[in-house]
Each structure stands twice: as structure tokens, then as C-alpha cells.
Amino acid sequence: MQRFFIMRKIKTDIYEVGGIDWDARMFDGLIPLPHGTSYNSYLIRGSEKTALIDAVDPRKRGDLFRHLKELGVDKIDYVISHHAEQDHSGGLPAVIERFPDAKIVTNQKCRDMLIDLMPLTVKNFTVIEDGQSISLGNKNLQFIFTPWVHWPETISTYLGEDKILFSCDFFGSHYATSRMFVGDDEGFVYQAAKRYYAEIMMPFRNIIKRNLAKIEPLDIRMIAPSHGPIYDRPEFIVEAYRDWISDDVKNEVVLAFISMHHSTEAMVDKLTEALMTRGIQVKRFDLTEPDTGQIAMALVDAATVVLGSPTMLGQAHPKAAYAALLTNALRPKTRFISMIGSFGWGSQAVKQVSGLLSSMKAEMLEPVIAKGYPNDADMKKLDELADSILEKHKSLDIA
Length: 399
Ligand code: FEO
Known about the structure:
Helix content is 34%, strand content 25%. It has 12 helices and 23 strands. The chain has helices at 61-70, 86-89, 92-98, 108-117, 186-201, 205-215, 234-245, 263-277, 292-299, 318-330, 349-356, 376-395; strands spanning 9-11, 14-16, 19-21, 26-27, 31-32, 37-39, 42-45, 50-53, 78-80, 103-106, 125-127, 133-135, 140-145, 155-159, 164-168, 222-225, 250-257, 281-286, 302-312, 315-316, 336-343, 363-364, 368-371. The protein has a 7-stranded mixed β-sheet with strand order 1-2-7-8-9-10-11. Strands 17, 18, 19, 20, 21, 22 and 23 form a 7-stranded mixed β-sheet that branches. A 5-stranded mixed β-sheet has the order 12-13-14-15-16. The longest helix has 20 residues, at 376-395.
């Protein structure tokens, strides 16, 4: 099939040369990609040296090489490696094979991880320190260590002459779009970027606060991530991140549930209504066919999480257990958790789910577990749980 390169010039001597993956639907076998993604790579031509920022997923290295050829690139001096994960570095061995004199510029931690993950030798590397710069002649690249966005080695690069921050996963969005810049698509990009933050960065929220503090003194007119479009109004995404990483929670309950024979479902319906009548927003997810990205996004803000599960073989339903495991791994800033559900003859579900949520620094509110189909007393307990959630939210001044 004939493929055409669309020249993606950002500014004079700066180009986006990576690949758009319109058809990708899953990342890491876990994260749904409803809108595809892109693996951005940036070429910067200085008066003396040429640098390539990030080296795309191996599946898109053909696009990368085609774009470099179209631009007449016959020499690369530096390949800046922000992050060892294969979607930005998997193309590195092929880039080094094509441009054998190029140095891979990265920090010690990323260098070590790259050598562990792919066939590269120590002689390919130039190791830099936090804050260090390299010169391309009329342009200088300053490296800012921004760990845990999303692995421990991650780096951003600031091009001061053009006031561009190249941020790799940080501020990124899984969004395949023909737009190079966000422009007036901020509403859609907000959702995609929030989904991305929730899925891979939320557990490192406190470290991201420090990363934001490091970049705030810089005069940034553009943020160029390695997934999704470039932010031509960077304050939009920086403001969004400030909100997501803040300690503030919203007057919301994430109510994730699964039901086998409608007992748990009846309890979920009752609690939903009880919370609504108390002015509390309910974000409700049926775990039968869940979009984990949507759940993760809801967890960014909610003050409370309630898990609904029937008992299956004495334990929580496996899909509810999975939701608890996922929530625990994402470590949202949720303040209160609880559980509702049902059992036939015996259940260890509450104990099991409490164990699965052991990393959560949240207060457990009294669970409501019904024997069989919920009776009036069970429904009353759900009203009491809603009262308790309201009181807790009031104590945070959000209700
Ligand atoms: Fe886009 Fe952590 O890789």
C-alpha cells in the first residue's frame, strides 16, 4: 500500500517525525485505546548538530525512517531517550543501526534499563545529569529529570530558544488525530489526557507535584508530548494536571458493581438513589464489560468508592476482586471506601476485598451485606451508608 508523508513542521527546523497508530485498541494488554494513539518523535536541526527526540514503537519505525528520509536527514548526532519503555525506545536499535555515529543521550537509570531491554551497547550512550544541557549550535537542549511519568527514569527536555518542553508520557494522551496541535480540540484532549494520567501516573501523584514545580519556572509556549497532539496553549494541560494531582476530592461516589441474580443490583439501585437524593454525584460502572479507563478517570476525583459484589464460592465475584485490585494499584486520593453485596450461605468477601485494597489510605465505612435478596432492614442500612457518606463529604466541605 502506498503511504504518504505529511510534513509535520512545528517551527523552523523542528519537526514531528513519528507515527500515528489509528488502529491500536489496547496498550500493555490492559489499557483500552478507544481513540488509538501516536508515538511522536521530534527532529531538531541546530546550526551544528541534529537531535532526534524519542524513537517510537518498533511497529512505527518504518514511518519514522520514511519521515527522516523525506526531510533529507543523513546524519543524527544525538538521540534523546526520555523513557526506556518500548513504545518510545523500541525503535532505538534500528535508529542506531541506521545512524551508527549517533549518541543516545539519557540519564544513568534509563541507560541501564535500555541495555536490559534491548540490544544496545554501552558505547552508544552519553549519560547526562539533571539540569544539564547539550548544544546543537544555535539551539540548546536542557534535560529535566521528571521521574515516574511514568517509569522511574523518565526525563523531559526543554528547548529554551523555542520555548518548547518535550515531555514524553508526561502530559500525553492516547489520541490518534490528524491535528498536530490541540488547538480548539481541548475538550476532547482533556478527556484523553485525563484517561492517560489516571491509567499510568495517578499512583505517582505526589512525585508529579514535584515534577510540575520543576517545570513551572520555565517559559513554556508549547508542550510536545510523545503521545497525542502538541499543546499550543500549555497552561490548559498544566492547569488540568494541577487539579488531578491536588489533594482535593469531589462530592462523588464511584459505584462499581457486578450482580449475578439481581440481589446486589437491587442494592446498587437503592444506594444510587439514596446518594442522588442527598446531592451526591454517582459514577456507576457495571463490571460485566468494564472500560477500565473510564473507571480510572472517575477515580481521579471521587471522594468515595463503593464496590458492589455478590459472593461466589465464598469470595467476592472475580470481576469485583479485579476492580479492587486495579483501584489498589492506581492508589487514587479517595478518602472513603465501602462495600455492598449479597451472599447465599457464607462469605469472606469483605475481608478479601479489604485485603485487596490494603494500599488505599482511605477510611472503610460500614459495609452492607445482605443474605439473599435485600430485605427492608438491608435497604435501611443502605440509607444509613448514604447518610454516612454525606456526613463524611460534609466534613471535607465538599457537600
Ligand atoms: Fe508511552 Fe510509558 O510509555
